[in-house]
Amino acid sequence: MPHIDPVATDLAPAAIGPYSQAIVSDGWIYVSGQIPLDPSTGEMEPGGIAAQTHRVFRNLEAVLVEAGGGLDTVVKTTVFLSDMANFSAMNEVYAEYFGDHRPARACVEAAALPRAVDVEIEAIARVSD
């Protein structure tokens, strides 16, 4: 049976339901979808899709670091957008955070996201072989 450890950090928004910010299991980190909430205030990141995507990445990175990884250990992401018209602006910010590291990715438009946000990103990372 795999060893499963929940991950929690105050540097990212607390889970808003019956789930963990992330789970570490056998060297894999499964990060729940991160939305653009400021963990210190619980408020939505002001600004458009670029500002929201930056906040999502700060939250995502905080969870990954708490779990023993980082953006450089991500192997797969899923990006959820409220409107595919935001794809280019989100993608520019996405590229800033991953640089030459190119994890596999899916990007889909969702009819609705938690708290009516415009972007949510989940990730899978590998921290040991």
Task: Note down, in words, how this protein is organized.
Helix 1 (49-66) runs parallel beside helix 2 (87-98). The chain contains two helices and six strands. The protein has a six-stranded mixed sheet with strand order 1-2-3-6-4-5, covered by helices on one side. The chain has one domain (4-126): RutC-like (60s Ribosomal Protein L30, Chain: A, 2-Layer Sandwich). With 129 residues, it is of the alpha+beta class. The longest helix has 18 residues, at 49-66. It is globular and about 40 Å long. It starts with a strand and ends with a strand. Helix content is 23%, strand content 29%. Strand 4 (74-81), helix 2 and strand 5 form a beta-alpha-beta unit. The model has no long low-confidence stretch (mean pLDDT 95).
User: How many β-strand stretches?
Assistant: 6
Under the CATH scheme, the architecture is: 2-Layer Sandwich
Oligomer: single chain
The CATH superfamily turns out to be: RutC-like
Largest sheet: 6 strands, mixed
Level-1 CATH class name = Alpha Beta
Class based on secondary structure composition and strand pairing: alpha+beta
Query: What is the total domain count?
Result: 1
Widest β-sheet, arrangement of strands? 1-2-3-6-4-5
Content of β-strand:
25-35%
Q: Give the CATH topology.
A: 60s Ribosomal Protein L30, Chain: A
User: Based on CA inertia axes, which overall geometry fits?
Assistant: globular
Q: N- to C-terminal separation?
A: 17 Å
H/E element sequence: EEEHEHEE
Tally of DSSP helical segments = 2
Helix content: 10-25%
Low-pLDDT segments: none
